Amino acid sequence: MIIQSQPAIRPFAPIRPQPAFVAEASPAEHPADTAQISRDPGPINWKAAPLAGAQTRLANKAAGQSAPLFGVGGLIFPDSTGKIKEMALQLGNVEFKKPLPEETHNGLLGVWNQLFTHMPETHFTVVCADQRGIDDVNKLVRDSGTDPARVSVVPAQAEQMSIWIRDSMLPVRAEDGHTKLLIQDRTYWPGAGDNTIAPTLAQVHGEDEHNPITSQQHPALRIDGGNILSNSKQIIVGSDSIRHTRARLQELYQDPAKAKEIEEFYSRASGQSPEDKDQMWEQLPSLVFQSEFGKPVLVIARDHDQPAFHIDMTCTPIGDKKFLVGDPSLAIKALKALSPEEREATNKAMAANAGITSGEDLVGKLIAAENTAENQANYDAVAAELKDAGYEIERMPALMGLRTTWSVPYLTYNNCIMERYPGSDGQEVKKVYLPQYGCEVLDKMAENIYQGNGYEVIPLQMGSISKLEGAIRCSSYAIEREF
């Protein structure tokens, strides 16, 4: 079915401050900072120093028991468990003011065909940027034999938007048991209408008798949805977002009344005095995340660069005890072992999958982009941090490609979506919707790793999407999940 458009939401502002949906924010409320319009949030000077040992446990307990600072959060959805009941997608038409490539548009439709087929009990809401998108999604529904009642096609409330729905919201389970879409402060805006997606979804589903979905702007969190992961026990946040959120909290701290609230919250949550300002600012962002989302927080990439702009490109929680962590050396070793004939065939297959016609050596470009000691060390450090936190670690091939060029696919097998739930026969269902890129040697290696962890693999051909620096987790969102 098609749900008619609602009244327009306030137009997009291209960089922070994030657009408000009710009233304009004054410059004093949201001072500008140095964020770049890029899928890379850019360097920030603060380090995200972790709490240590017993201090961490004490702070976790205190934060969990204390009143939250803002109180608009909820229990964040886990990536690694539960059945997806409602999936939100967006069919955009731009990427940083450039028209969305035709092959990317068509590639998304092919991926969604697989999702419609392999998620037969899931309802999909697809927000479309233009009439062409509406027509193409409705045609896909007809041609695939999908029950039209399972797909709501929604006109966007803006003329231009990207395909990256993940970064515009943070779905949580609110106190009433229903979904709330938190609208946080993004670090980049690839589409002018991306800020309208969460309110649009809330308007579409607001009267749903089963799960009336709401949206609410969060005043403090400065994070992209791709830089936070969750299992049923813990939240994992990339250090870039800790630093960005610290900067936002420091902006709020300029208001004396808010400063008093922040200091009082810090004292309750940490059990320590706010007089040591360096210590307070080091610890405060993690405590805020924890109090808003109802789970302990683990910050990764604490003392080094993140391996990628978002941690979901390089890390995957497998249940509550294990992580798959990207490893460029695995990928590079496998690619270097290809014979000349195999390398030529791989180049052709990857180019066809991604819609790349340059005729270049894509294998060589990918190896050159990632084959540095510093880059490998960033991946290895994340694996070590997760291992130190008690997780079993298995490494996954990964090659991130070349930034802002659209010239090679990003070979990420961590950027996936998963379901894990009891089946009707009493057996556990474990599915992973896994990106593949026409790189047979790595595609197969990743598939075997997930199968070795008990997952049924549903392959999604994503080269034409990933050359824009994201994959299936970036371009989809479970906004209702049983867990």
Features of this protein?
disordered N terminus; 483 residues; alpha/beta; four-stranded mixed β-sheet; L-arginine/glycine Amidinotransferase, Chain A
Describe the structure.
The chain has 483 residues and is an alpha/beta fold. The chain has one domain: L-arginine/glycine Amidinotransferase, Chain A, CATH 3.75.10. The chain contains 13 helices and 20 strands. The chain has helices at residues 53-65, 102-118, 131-144, 197-205, 239-252, 256-270, 277-293, 328-336, 340-354, 362-370, 373-388, 440-452, 463-466, and strands at residues 75-76, 83-91, 94-95, 98-99, 123-128, 151-155, 170-173, 179-185, 214-222, 228-230, 235-238, 297-300, 315-318, 322-327, 392-399, 411-412, 417-422, 428-436, 456-461, 477-482. The protein has a 4-stranded mixed beta sheet, with helices on both faces. Strands 6-5-2-20 form a 4-stranded mixed beta sheet, with helices on both faces. Helix 1 (53-65) packs across helix 7 (277-293), helix 5 (239-252) crosses helix 7 and helix 6 packs across helix 7 (277-293). The chain is globular, with a radius of gyration of 22 Å. The two termini are 28 Å apart. Mean pLDDT is 88; it is low at 1-65.
Structural class, please? alpha/beta
**Rg for CA atoms:** 22 Å
Strand content: 15-25%
Q: Rough shape?
A: globular
Distance between the termini: 28 Å
Q: For the record, what CATH class applies?
A: Alpha Beta
Q: Using the coordinates shown, work out and report the CATH topology.
A: L-arginine/glycine Amidinotransferase, Chain A
Please identify which CATH superfamily we are dealing with: L-arginine/glycine Amidinotransferase, Chain A
Mean pLDDT: 88
Q: How many H/I helices?
A: 13
- Helicity range: 25-40%
Low-confidence stretches: 1-65
Number-wise, the strands total: 20
